[in-house]
Specification:
about 85% helix
Length: about 300
């Protein structure tokens, strides 16, 4: 009841909500709640109201950067952190607008992945040597982080940098997309909990990707195996897309287990996934790839 009263209070007091979102952003950890609230307002009141609150939740990052004192060596790191925060908040609002306009989660995930793929492709088009740049940044970072660097031999150090730089832009982009989607999911849960109990479960357990996405994923697997540098860099984004879709199927099957221990087995599954990374992501992605043509949920319903 208190949570419901708090929610309705935020919906009814526009200016106070804006001030709270602005101030809370300055608080570490709790600051993420402001953009979640902005996404929630977007889902309930529309794009304009959500944009105002998103701006209030994002402005503190810019203010903090402007008034903070940082050395030249840390400037690029700070700039990157600010860019990630601003991009993540902006994408959260955009995705909330799409979801509010009856866009399904399946469509939303694919739009997000497409945007990420286009971004990485444009970066490689404008800066063909972006992997070299990442190598220099990573080398500088590992040199400063002596505690990490000392635990590796020189050859291992170079091998780690050479492997990481091929995927760095893709990993950064996938991280921003994942953060934005996670924030939107929490906002959707908030809305569902107050107004539409049980809706989020049904939505997220029915994510089904298009055949075009499946064909592009298969083609990307082939080109990445052949060593295409652009495709290698977009693979983290594609694995994020197909991994999320695969988890949707996993949650669907665990939901069919009509026992009180289903949540326990789901936690065991996630624990096994963490232990077996990155192989588990590949496995879950293959499930969602197979689902595109075989529709495993429909087949399961026929069997049961």
């Amino acid at each position: 009841m208190k949570f419901q009263r708090f929610t309705h209070y935020l919906l009814e007091h526009r200016y106070l909500t804006i001030v709270l979102a602005f101030l809370i952003t300055f608080i570490p950890v709790l600051g993420a709640m402001s953009i979640i609230a902005a996404a929630f307002i977007t889902l309930r009141k529309g794009a304009v109201e959500g944009a105002i609150l998103t701006f209030a939740a994002t402005l503190p990052y810019v203010i903090s950067f402007y008034f903070s004192h940082h050395t030249d060596t840390s400037t690029i790191t700070v700039w990157a952190a600010i860019l990630v925060a601003v991009s993540s908040n902006t994408l959260t609002w955009i995705f909330a607008v799409l979801l509010n306009r009856r866009c399904s989660w399946s469509q939303l995930f694919q739009i997000a992945a497409l945007a990420g793929v286009l971004f990485v492709s444009v970066i490689h088009l404008l800066y063909p040597d972006v992997a070299v740049w990442w190598g220099e940044q990573l080398r500088s970072y590992y040199t400063e982080a002596k505690a990490v660097a000392n635990s590796l031999s020189q050859s291992d150090h170079l091998e780690l940098i050479n492997n990481t730089k091929q995927y760095a832009t893709g990993f950064m982009t996938a991280g921003v997309l994942f953060n934005a989607i996670l924030q939107l999911i929490i906002a959707r849960w908030w809305e569902s909990y107050i107004f539409y109990p049980g809706r989020l479960h049904k939505e997220l357990q029915n994510v089904h990707l298009s055949q075009l996405a499946g064909i592009l994923f298969i083609a990307s697997l082939v080109f990445s195996y052949l060593g295409n540098i652009v495709v290698l860099d977009i693979m983290p984004i594609l694995y994020l897309l197909f991994g999320v879709a695969g988890l949707s199927i996993v949650h669907y099957f665990f939901r069919q287990i009509k026992t009180s221990t289903s949540w326990f087995w789901l936690m065991i599954f996630y624990l096994a996934m963490v232990i077996s990374l990155p192989a588990s992501i590949i496995f879950v992605s293959m499930i969602s790839l197979a689902d595109i043509w075989f529709n495993v949920r429909k087949r399961f319903k026929k069997i049961s």
